[in-house]
Amino acid sequence: MAKAIEFTPQPPSLQQKLDASVGDSAEALAESLRLLRELHEHGVLEVLVRLVRGGEGLSASALHLLAGESSTTLIKNVVELGKTASALNPDEVRVLGQAVSAGVTEGAKYVAEFSSRNRGIGLPELLSMLRDRDVQLALGAVFGVLKGAGRALREAGED
Amino acid sequence: MTQHNRTTGTQSQPGPLRVAGGAAVPLQTVSVQIDGVAFEGRVGEPLIDVINRAQIELAQVCYHPQLGPIQTCDTCAVEVNGVVGRACGTPVTAGLTVRTQTQAARLAQRDAYDRIVSNHDLYCTVCDNSNGNCTVHNTLGLLSIDHPTRPFQPKGLPQDHSNAFYRYDPDQCILCGRCVEACQNVQVNETLSINWEAEQPRVQWDGGKPIGDSSCVSCGHCVTVCPCNALMEKSMLGEAGLLTALPKPVFESAIDLVKGVEHSSGLQLIMNVSDVEAQARAASIQKTKTVCTYCGVGCSFEVWTKDRHILKVEPGPGPANGISTCVKGKFGWEYVNSEDRLTTPLIRENGRFREATWNEALDLIARRLTEIKGQHGPDALAFIASSKATNEEAYLVQKFARQVIGTNNVDNCSRYCQSPATQGLARTVGYGGDSGTIHDIENAKLVITVGSNTAESHPVLATRVKRAHKLGRTELVVVDIREHELARRADRFLRPRPGTDFVWLCAVSRLILERGWADDAFLQARVNGLEEFRASVDAFTLAYAEAETGIPAADLEALARQIVAASRDKSGGGVCILWAMGVTQQCGGSETSTAISNLLLITGNYGRTGTGAYPLRGHNNVQGASDMGAMPDQVSGYQKVGDPLTVQRHQREWGVQLRPERGLDNTQMIDAAIDGKLRALWLTGEEMSLTDANANHLEKGYEALEFMVVQDLYFTNTARYADVVLPAASALEKEGTFTSTERRVQRLYEAMPPLRGTRPDWQIYTAVAERMGWRWGYTHPSEIMAEIARVTPIMAGVSYERLQGFDSLCWPVAEDGTDTPLLYIDRFHFPDGKARLYPAEYQPRQHTPGAEFDLHLNSGRMLEHFHEGNMTFRVPGLAASVPDTFVEISPELAAERQITNGQWVRLISPNGAVKLQAHITGRVSGHEVYVPMNARHAEDAVNRLTGNNRDTVTNTPAYKDTSVRMEVLSEGGPNPLPKGNSRYGHPTPQTGVEVERKWARPDYVFPGGLLPMLGDSLNARSDRLGGDD
Fold first, then answer.
1. A2/B339 CB distance under 8 A
2. Residue B200 lies in a domain
3. CB-based contact (8 Å) between A28 and chain B?
4. Contact flag A76-B254 (C-beta cutoff 8 Å)
5. pLDDT band at B380 (very low <50, low <70, confident <90, very high)
6. I need a surface site. Which of A104, B129, B370, B961 has the fewest CB within 10 A?
């Protein structure tokens, strides 16, 4: 014979929820405690706590700074440089890079050879260099770069 | 030079709602050249459909296949036969040559999108809608736009947070009008519009009200179709993204920074960053397909969750509903996380409940059931399956009863609702379920609803009726004593006296036979029993019907003519009759349902698309509970317990012999308990103490029981009588299947693990069965379904593989998986294949209002709540909209008795009394009052007033056959239906989004003009800043 009786279910208390979670995650907790110990011993934990406390101020002011005139310009220039870098053909860059490094080596050798003599390059030597096949190729490449840049500048000016 | 065609597009009527999986009416096919390749298209369909089917990438923003073309965004510009126009606004004809990527087309596409983006602040990385499915975001990627031309400017209109469930942000709104189209023509609530002529157009509710004060019913259509974050579910805000919950100042700084950099980097780079963030957030968002837990329409959708937090409900590919939902299905799931959830079993001891472990509780149940069975025999125990639990669980309840205990005392709550309809249809056509699907209702020439408040009880199904009616494809007749929403829209609204539907149905049938309007060919070929039927309706002359029902004879004759006219053309749809509790919860429920089916038979309205009988099932799985045999005289598949083949099948599968005697049904169980014959009851998932009639009588029955187990989500009113209370898992926390009113079986998947301490019902039954010596060994519900398929011929081909994702099957399902959406195409479900006209008898009301109890009491549902409200009162937004029960009183009655809104009154019947606040409305008339089922407090439940009168055949309580008297109390109070409820709103019906008004603006030019920024974007401030003026 069952008369009606009332009951109000208690939602699990915070402590009960915590105990249940701890029970589920025992291994993960043990490992994370190890990590925390290390961070604490090296003083990193305290720095992190203070950083997080400074959090909103940090991010708000950081963003504010970043959004300022000079920072925006800086970021935009970085982005533009990045776009240039992504537009250049890596193969061509490699060729030019190798050429430049070979050239630097050659130039350093020349300096080493001629600095002891305490004179610069003389006119006859200059003319004989101009006849040199390698120098002609490099000069051609340099003028090619100038020509390409000049064309782009001219076209930009015309728009 | 290509001419820019300001294609106004055809304003032809959009086609039938193309829901995923639904077949459109086949049309003539032609060949269409797109970008040099030939594709097949159907004449009249929008060109954009052909392009999309061909999987050619074309930017499009406002087009949604389920809305049809609305032509507001202009983004889908393509060149058709040399002229640039909208792909969505170009109907397919023979000889079309389309080029999607000409210079002119590309210019137009980008100009159109530019206008969109000047209306929308692009902060995708910190936007809650950036989940991979944001149309505005994805289109930006498709068009590879780096620098928009028109600047975005805030519009100066505030955000609207006044609705409990979603918010509107005009600064993000691109004015695509999808929401308006959905509200006007899909949900057909007609609340939304756009004021195209204004200087700064925006989406408006009721022509300019705050959302919370409008006629908006929070169905969610607008939020679902919004292609960006202008309309967002509040549960998503600050929750979906990794960075979207930033404090406002930080948020604004972040956006400013990105805007500053965008000039150099271009939009694509920033979009890439946001795509990375979207991927990252996707890892913590789970998307699970499920079927709605509320009503019998069977809407299915994805639920997005983050652990236990429900982010949103995302409909789209559901076979029954498509993009449609109602407020409960879209926004009503917080009950799952209510603090009231039971989390431990409870055992009654020394006059109180104490918490117990599962083992303790299950052991106790097994022991007590065994004891009582031993002492008093198996028939001293009874089992009630839940109509909200899954098919597998309903099957196990009746398996437990029959195999483990050995009794047929098993039932489910269909006893309270559609059992009479099942009876009426089983008598006449053979299967006790809807004879077709929603697709048929959509394609009818005439829809008649009897005793159904469809727009509030089956909202999404009602939207299909409203849409077909609004678009002029279907006539609508509503017969009801209450003037609800569908009644106001109907072409013909008949208001009979309560409980007299049988009479007018027979009178109309008699007239049709008398005038020779019946479908003789159909009757000859497919139906038996004509002469007997003719004799049985002979007494129902129009004059008699008018006297008994109060409906004028002329109206009845006009109705008969209308039915016959709609049934004539056999090549198209015919008549569908939908009915619900107004018919079945009466003493003549079965007889009236039979009369409905008889009427359909004599007019030939079975067995083809657009015809048939539709008793609308109330719960998400009440159809399933009956299908699974949770009934006293049938096992699964409506096989009778005495049928030899059935007995054999079950002997083989269960190892026991079924008993041929009918067991007790719900109402008989209570009587048996009071008589001392029934001693134990195990009830799952039902607030029986408040939903059965005559609640006071019921309580005596419970108190008489020796042992009662209640299994539910909360400590319900019914649980107060239990000896053991078990905490069950909710629908989002388990797998299984539901069967909707369409006989459609669909799978639900687990969106979150069961709340700690709760278990799915099927695991509980299995555990107790094992303790009683029966090792069922189920590890997953798919195994239970496999067993069901083995013993149930109509479910022979049902398996979880065939139901994966959004797939569904309408039973009967043959072993090879062929299902049957439309019944009776070739034969009716009788041995000779013919239907049977059944001579039914009039069962008049037993409690017609008289001298003492002079008011008629009607009761039923409301849109916002589900039945008694155990789930919906635990959803704060719904509880705020309708805080408690009340009584609807007509203006005439209020004037007569001097009652004001909010006045406390007492309603008294022979069975009990209830104190309620009055709500005066024209929905009820004369001396008829209406009390909704949803009450916060058990003492206020309307079923304290209903009595023991029942349907003569099925014992369904005749809730609607109740009379009361009213005492007016001196206390007054606030109106029980608070201000802001949608019923007080004033919708603004129009034909759709009305894009012609946008085109009529003097500043409108089709995009892609020769001058940059020619034509305005409709963001007034942006247009003032830049452009051509």
1. no
2. no
3. no
4. no
5. very high
6. A104
Tell me whether residue B522 is in a domain. Answer: yes
Q: Which residues of A touch B260 (CB under 8 A)?
A: 67, 72, 75-76
What's the pLDDT band for B668 if we cut at 50, 70, 90?
A: very high
Sequence-ordered list of residues with C-beta below 8 angstroms from that of B831, at least 6 positions apart, any chain: none
Is residue B451 domain-shared with residue B572, that is, in the same domain? yes
Residue B308 tokens read as 């236990």
What are phi and psi for residue B725, nearest 5 degrees?
Answer: -115, 130
Q: How far apart are CA B184 and CA B187, in angstroms?
A: 7
Domain ranges in chain A?
31-87, 89-154
B583 and B436 in one domain?
A: yes
CATH number, domain with residue B519: 3.40.228.10
Q: Are residues B580 and B642 in the same domain?
A: no
| CATH number for position B973 | 2.40.40.20
Please tell me the distance in Å from A80's CA to the nearest CA on chain B: 7
Residues B724 and B752 in one domain: yes
Cα R_g (chain A), whole angstroms: 35
Cβ-defined contact of A20 to B756 (cutoff 8 Å): yes
Tokens 């950083």, residue located: A51
CB B721 to CB A2 under 8 A?
A: yes
Query: Could you write out the DSSP letters of every residue in B334-348?
Result: GGGG-TT---S-EEE
Give me the residue from A7, A63, A76 closest to B254, CB to CB: A63
For residue B660, is the peptide bond before it cis, meaning its omega torsion is within 30 degrees of 0?
no
Query: Is this prediction's ipTM beyond 0.90?
Result: no
- CB contact under 8 Å between A7 and B352, yes or no, is yes
Q: Among partner residues A63, A79, A83, which is closest to B261 by beta-carbon distance?
A: A79
Nearest to B260 by CA among A3, A64, A61, A139: A64
Q: Please give the pLDDT value at position A118.
A: 67
Average pLDDT over residues B968-985: 95
Q: Which of B739, B768, B797 is the last residue of a domain?
A: B768
Task: Tell which of B714, B748, B768 closes a domain.
Answer: B768
For residues B590 and B725, membership in a common domain is answered with no
Residue B221 and residue B1002 in contact, taking contact as beta carbons nearer than 8 Å: no
Torsion of CA B454, B455, B459, B465, to 10 degrees: 80
- The answer to whether A8 faces chain B, any CB pair under 8 Å, is yes
**In the structure, what pLDDT confidence band is assigned to residue B134 with cuts at 50, 70 and 90?**
very high
Residue B641 lies in a domain: yes
Cross-chain CB nearest to A72 (options B260, B705, B720): B260
The residue to which tokens 């996707």 are assigned: B282
Number of other CB atoms surrounding residue B23 within 10 Å: 10
Residues forming beta bridges with residue B576, ordered by sequence position: B447, B612
Nearest by CB to residue B247, choosing from A3, A4, A56, is: A56
Q: Note whether B429 and B520 are same-domain residues.
A: yes
Let me know: does B484 contact B455? Beta carbons within 8 Å.
Answer: yes
Which tens digit of pLDDT belongs to each residue from B863-882?
999 999 999 999 999 999 99
CA distance A30 to chain B (A): 23
What gap in Å lies between CA B389 and CA B561, rounded to an integer? 44
Assess if residue B259 is contained within a domain.
no
Q: Where in the sequence is the domain holding B946, given as residue range(s)? A: 855-978
Query: Do the beta carbons of residue B207 and residue B974 sit within 8 Å?
Result: no
B553 and B576 fall within a common domain = yes
- In this structure, are B611 and B626 located in the same domain? no
Q: What pLDDT, in 10s, does the model give residues B543-598?
A: 999 999 999 999 999 999 999 999 999 999 999 999 999 999 999 999 999 999 99
Give the ranges where A12-68 is alpha helix by DSSP (H). 14-24, 26-41, 44-53, 55-66
In the predicted structure, residue B614 carries a pLDDT above the cut 70: yes
Q: Total structural domains in chain B?
A: 3
Q: Which residues in chain B touch residue A14, judged by CB atoms under 8 angstroms apart?
A: none
Q: Are B893 and B454 in contact (CB under 8 A)?
A: no
